[in-house]
């Protein structure tokens, strides 16, 4: 799976499990750490932990395994490292405090997320 496809697939899995405010960013021109960031919020700590579990399980079924995970116990901010894609799942309070998308969004590097485009198309009808 290509890096862009992996980022979009991770975002789709999070969307399918009711994650909120999902953002995908292409950051390869800003850092050597990763190529893409996916940032999402759960509604509470239980939801954040469940989103992590869903994401790992679904990607594992597709042959994609994470290298590392941080924060899985507390469920306030979980970071999953898939090498070329790092997924951050936040509790709403931590997301508001750290505002990662403001740090990494240069105004031109947002990743197209098909499920949001579908929602926009339905809203226009």
Description of the molecule:
This protein has helices at about 5-15, 45-60, 90-100, 100-105, 115-125, and strands at about 20-25, 35-40, 70, 75-80, 85-90. Helix content is about 45%, strand content about 20%. Strand 4 (about 75-80) and strand 5 form a beta hairpin. The protein has one domain (about 5-125): Beta Polymerase, domain 2, CATH 3.30.460. The protein has five helices and five strands. Strands 1-2-5-4-3 form a five-stranded mixed beta sheet. The longest helix has 17 residues, at about 45-60. The chain is of the alpha+beta class.
CATH class categorisation: Alpha Beta
The biggest beta sheet is recorded as: 5 strands, mixed
Strand order of the largest sheet: 1-2-5-4-3
Strand content: 15-25%
Low-confidence stretches: none
* Overall number of domains: 1
Globally, the shape reads: globular
Find the structural class using helix and strand composition: alpha+beta
Mean pLDDT: 91
Oligomer: single chain
**Estimated radius of gyration:** 14 Å
Q: Helix amount, in percent?
A: 40-55%
Q: What is the name of the CATH superfamily? A: Beta Polymerase, domain 2
């Amino acid at each position: 799976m290509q890096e862009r496809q992996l980022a979009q697939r991770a975002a789709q899995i999070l969307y399918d499990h009711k994650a909120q405010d999902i953002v995908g960013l292409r950051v390869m021109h800003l850092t050597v750490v990763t190529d893409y960031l996916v940032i999402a919020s759960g509604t509470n700590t239980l939801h954040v932990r469940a989103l992590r579990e869903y994401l790992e399980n679904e990607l594992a079924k597709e042959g994609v395994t994470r290298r590392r995970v941080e924060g899985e116990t507390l469920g306030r901010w979980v970071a999953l490292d898939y090498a070329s894609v790092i997924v951050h799942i936040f509790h709403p309070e931590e997301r508001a405090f750290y505002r990662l998308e403001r740090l990494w969004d240069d105004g031109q590097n947002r990743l197209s997320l098909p499920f949001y485009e579908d929602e926009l198309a339905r809203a226009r009808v």
